Amino acid sequence: MRAKKLCALLLTTAMISSVFAGCGKTTSTTDKAGSDTGSAKTETKDVKLTVWGPQEDQAKIKGYNDGILKAMCDSFNEQHPEWNITFEYGVCSEGDAKDVVTKDVDAAADVYMYANDQIPVLVEAGALSKLGGSTVDEINENNEKAMIDSVTYDGSVYGVPYTSNTWFMYYDKSKFSEDEVKSLDKMMSKNLGNGVTNFAFPLDNSWYIEAFYYAAGGSLFGDGTDASAGCDWDSEAGVAATKYMVNLAKNKKFSCEKDGSSIAKFKDGKLGAYCSGSWDAKAIKEALGKNFAAAQLPTATINGQEGQMKSFAGSKAVGVNPKCEDQEVAVALARYLAGEECQKIRFESRGIAPINKILAADEAVMKDTVIKAQADEIANAAAVQPLLSEMGSYWTPAETMGKEIVQGDVTEANAEKKTKEMVKGILSNGL
User: Fold this and answer.
1) Which of 157, 179, 288, 346 has the smallest number of Cβ neighbours within 10 A?
2) Separation of alpha carbons 26 and 46, rounded Å
3) Residue 431: per-residue pLDDT
4) 333-385 pLDDT, tens per residue?
5) Residue 197's closest CA among 251, 94, 271?
6) In the prediction, which pLDDT does 215 show?
7) What's the CA gap between 215 and 229, in Å, rounded?
């Protein structure tokens, strides 16, 4: 998994409303349009909400001097005259949410953003409100199944997704055609010249290695929701996937990605393709220039069968703290911050991939090479990362397998033994 950013709880208070009379109070205001009748009034409730989001959403960016998070919250406040909201902001990355929020749920934000694989921990800590009613209806209506599943845990929905979180493939289109990048075997068979690496991949990273076991037809906890189904990667096909990676790692046309080395190779014209996510898009675009291209993962022929490589798919979502006194307002804000309007703002200002069906069908949005590649990956070449506590015992054994393959400790001769050891480790959490 990607290295997490440190979380700094740097709270700043912004007075959003023109009048703040204290949390929980209500005031009456005369409706000017109905003043002739002399009786039209609306009740305004004063609310205070603490919102945590990543630093990037709160930094100055073109068109948003105070960052997009404050602008989005301001807009929400304006759209809801029934509430008079004062916002307090804190900086916390999606990747750090579970560690920071669970330290003190009572003192944590009312509304915050998180990576969906943290849901089991957050729910266990009583830090995420279960959503229902029209909120869930809206999530179901506006998102593809993979994104709905990404925030569904133990049959309930615990957040509103606003972007997908996965990885795909970048490539140099001067070296590979659109047809060639559909098959890893075709890519590896091509001669790109001396000193050129055809394919770079973080083989020693457990967020990536699953791609080959899925290509071999393997499953992890069934469809990702059934702990009792276990992991069948120690099957004949799974062992064949391990052997495939052993031979890939030995191939001189392959390199295991290390600390951004692949991006440097792209810039030097020494690399054909590399797997990563949208976070590397800007640097790779700069490195490849006019030769920049991206696509969903290719297929791989393992044990005589061509299968689709698959990445883990997840989402980033907005959740509500059950300790928040104003659940109605907090849930409405979460829906808005993760909704179509704010997804468009994130896309236009930060290049964050939208998942709302309307935006995903927008030609202007899909013209973006990275957005399209990520959308294609989610739709055709991804498996929802299992939201099970049993996944806690997955990461280390899978990482160890990848590292030992790269080091040469796993060979075709001991592949079966090593694969069975990995699966035993994955299933060590109470299974």
Assistant:
1) 179
2) 6
3) 46
4) 999 999 999 999 999 999 899 999 999 888 888 899 999 999 999 989 999 99
5) 271
6) 98
7) 18
pLDDT attached to residue 116: 95
Residue pair 209/218 in contact (Cβ under 8 Å)? The answer is no
Max CA separation in the chain (angstroms) = 89
**Structure tokens of 95?**
């990747």
Q: Tokens 């002399």 — which residue? A: 38
Q: What is the 3-state secondary structure (H, E, C) of the chain?
A: CCCCCCCCCCCEEECCCCCCCCCCCEEEEECHHHCCCCCCEEEEEEEEEEEEECHHHCCCECCECCCHHHHHHHHHHHHCCCEEEEEEEEECCHHHHHHHHCCCHHHCCCEEEEEHHHHHHHHHCCCCCCECHHHHHHHHHHCCHHHHHHCEECCEECCEEEEEECCEEEEECCCCCCCHHHEHHHHHHCCCCCCCEEEEECCCCCCCCHHHHHHCCCCECCCCCCHHHCECCCCHHHHHHHHHHHHHHHCCCEEECCCCHHHHHHHCCCEEEEEECHHHHHHHHHHHHHHEEEECCCEEEECCEEEECCEEEEEEEEEECCCCCCHHHHHHHHHHHCCHHHHHHHHHHHCCCCCCHHHHCCHHHHCCHHHHHHHHHHHHCEEECCCCHHHHHCHHHHHHHHHHHHHCCCCCCCHHHHHHHHHHHHCCCCC
Return all residues near 7 (Cβ < 8 A) that are at least 6 apart.
91, 92, 93, 96, 99, 100
Task: Kindly list the structural domains of the chain, giving each domain's residue range(s) and its CATH number in brackets, ordered by start.
Answer: 12-36+44-158+314-375 (3.40.190.10), 168-310+383-426 (3.40.190.10)
What's the one-letter identity of residue 301?
T
pTM (predicted TM-score)? 0.81
* Residue ranges in the chain modelled with pLDDT below 70: 1-42, 430-431
